Every structure is written in structure tokens, then in C-alpha cells.
Amino acid sequence: MPAFANPRALRSVLGCAKRVLGRGRAGAPIAPRLIGLAALRITLGMIVLPLPILLAMILGFLALRMALGQRPVPLLAGLLALLAVQALINALALHYGVGAARFMQPITAMCVPALAWLAWRADALGHRLGWRDLAHGIGPVIVAALRFENSLALEMLVPLAYVGYAGALALSLQRTGPDLPRAKMGQGDGSHLIWAGIAGALALSALSDVAIAVFVALGQVAAVPRLVDIATTSGLLGMGVLAVLAQRMTGQAGEDAADMPLAPSEDDHALFARLEDLMSERRLWRDPDVTLSMLARRLHVPAKTLSNAVNRVSGQNISRYVNGHRIAAASASLQRGASVTEAMLDAGFLTKSNFNREFRRITGKTPSDVGSAPIAKG
Questions:
Q1: pLDDT for 213-244, tens place per residue?
Q2: CA-CA distance, 9 to 46, in Å (whole number)?
Q3: pTM for this one?
Q4: What torsion, rounded to 10 degrees, do the Cα atoms 143, 96, 89, 215 define?
């Protein structure tokens, strides 16, 4: 029972409010009273509001902040907003028994994996969505139709959709490789791992539905509401955190691209030479937000074309190629007497862990080893 439905709890809260507000004397400092009132309001919110509603408020705030941010990721922002709506619907259905919320639960839940997939295509790969992508709305429509039937097909369709989208996302990640067109190159493979985490979160959501069905089959009906509350809240929170991290590692949008043939060509060498000139003249590797799409846009070629050319000519992906320029510049800075932190930031790295890992991979040494080595005289 929520606290506001409990008269004893409500009287306790109101009594506490009266004591907090009545303690002040004329001329006494008002700051302690305001602090006490603020603490009371926080406590009141924790008592009255179920956890899913607090989660909905947090996810909604993050969605609004993401939508108004400098880096446009509209589908990721939409995914966060949908997760907030789902958390609110779950709270209304489980904690307050609202019939309309119970009806909407599987419908909005069916929208989550579809929107996660569209966010992957648009905000991670930089693809332009078209009319064919509207087909992903068929699932929620089917669920809405089955909702009137209360059929077993409805109970199977939602977890199967989550598994299907999770598998499709994992397969697309494998085919794309570590070079995500809109991923910042100063983050290593972090963006790739985060999207893999989103695929895993979708699969775990389906697994939780199976676990709930098993509890029902075993006759443990009393434990089902709490299990549903814990599973859905943790799943929504995990996916929301991953969506925020994905946005933080996403740069500006670029162009979509077609696949290139596997064999190297003269065009690949010419494009790689243009990239080398661009990197040397503009020193774009110093920008921690540089992405494959940004480089491709500077060279007026599709992102996939540039990625393929770098792979064929240099034998490494675009992220490692850019980091090679960064490590070379950092090594020179360290030999000139710069500190490890100065060299790291000047070269375009954001975290010491990624900087140290890439430095050791390329040079076989640590930044401290290079910085402490004596400078050779001419």
C-alpha cells in the first residue's frame, strides 16, 4: 500500500511537517528551516512515490536533456522517453491497479526493442530512415489487437520480439565491426560494447518474461507482482543508462554508405593519401570528438568507403589509425618534457585507461617510460 493511502503514515508525515515549520522563532535564521523543509519534501517523495515513478522522472529528465543537447540523437532521446513512459505505465498498473495502464503495458513494451533498433540504425550507423522502417510499428499494432483477445499468443509474442531484435542488433554489430560511423574515436571500442550491452539488455528482458511465466506455471502467483516490478524496473534502468552512455560516445551525423568490393584498388590508395594529408595539415586527431563520419565528410566520400580504404591500405581500422597519429604526437610531447596528462589531452584522448592501453599497444612501452627516458643528443 502506498504511503498516502495509509492514514497513520500520512498523519506522521504531516506532524513532522508541522514541527519543522513551527520551530522557527521570529528573527531566527530561515536557512535551517528551509533545509529542513527540503529534506522533508525529499523524504515525503521517497515515502509516497513507488520506485518506477521515480525512475520515470529520472529517465524523462534525461530524455529532455538529450533532446536539447548539442549532438543530435533523436532516436536515442525518443528511446529514453519511451522507457520513462513504460516505467510510469508499470507503476500505474502494478502499484495503483489502473486498468488502462494494464492494457497499455504490453503495447508500449513492444515499442521498446523496435525503437532501440531504429536508434542503432539512425544514431549509431548514421543511416537515413525511410518509409520501410514504418514496418517496425506492425508489432505494437498486433499486440494491441491481441490485447482484446487475452490470448496465449500475446504472452509469447513480446519476449520473442525482444529476442529477435536482440539477435538482429548483435548480428549487425558483428557485421559492422568496431568502426561505428558516429562513434568518437577517443573512446576505443566503448561505443561498440555499449550497443552490445543494449542487445544483451533486450535479451535479458525476454528472459525475465520467461521467468515470470515459470512462476505462474508453478503456482507462485503471489510472488509475480514483486518479480515483475523488480525485473521491469531494473531492465528499464539498465537500458536507460546504456542509452545515455551511447549518446555520450556519439559524434555528429554523417552520410550513409554502400558496401565496397573486398580487393584493394588505386582509389583506396588515393583516398588514403588524401586522408594522410588531411590529418597532417589539420591535425584532426586532436579533436576528442572526431568520428569516421566527420573525416568522411571532410573528404567528400561515404563513411563506409573511407573505412574500407583505411582497412585495406593500412591493415587496421579507422579508430586504430587515428590513435596511431595521437600516440605519435603524445610520444613527441613526452620526449619534450610534457607531463603524461598534458600529452594525453593534447593528443585527443579523454581517459587515461584508453591512452595507456593504446600507448602500450603501439609502442610497447608505458607513457611514463617514454617520459622518463633521456633525450638523445644530436
A1: 777 677 766 766 777 777 777 888 888 887 87
A2: 13
A3: 0.62
A4: -60
The per-residue pLDDT for 169 is: 93
Decide: helix, strand or coil at residue 263.
coil
Radius of gyration of the chain (CA): 27
Q: Where are the alpha helices (DSSP H) in 49-151?
A: 51-67, 74-94, 99-119, 138-147
Burial class for 302, CB neighbours closer than 10 Å (0-12, 13-18, 19+): buried
Q: How many CA atoms lie within 13 A of 209 on its CB side?
A: 20
Give exposure, 146-180, as e/b (b: 16+ Cβ within 10 Å): bbeeeeeebbebbbebbbebbeebbebbeebeebb
Contact 292, 183 (CB under 8 A): yes
What pLDDT was estimated at residue 26?
A: 43
- Rounded-to-integer distance, Cα 334 and Cα 174, Å: 37
Q: How far apart are CA 10 and CA 309, in angstroms?
A: 68
Euclidean distance between CA atoms 100 and 323, whole angstroms: 53
Single out the residue of 58, 145, 76, 146 nearest to residue 112, CA to CA: 76
CB of 268 within 8 A of CB of 312? yes
Beta strands in the chain (DSSP E): none
Nearest to 344 by CA among 372, 370, 321, 367: 367
Cα–chain center distance at 162: 17
Q: Residues near 113 by Cβ (< 8 Å), separated by ≥ 6? A: 161, 162, 164, 165, 166, 202
Within 8 A by CB and 6+ apart from 176, the residues are 125
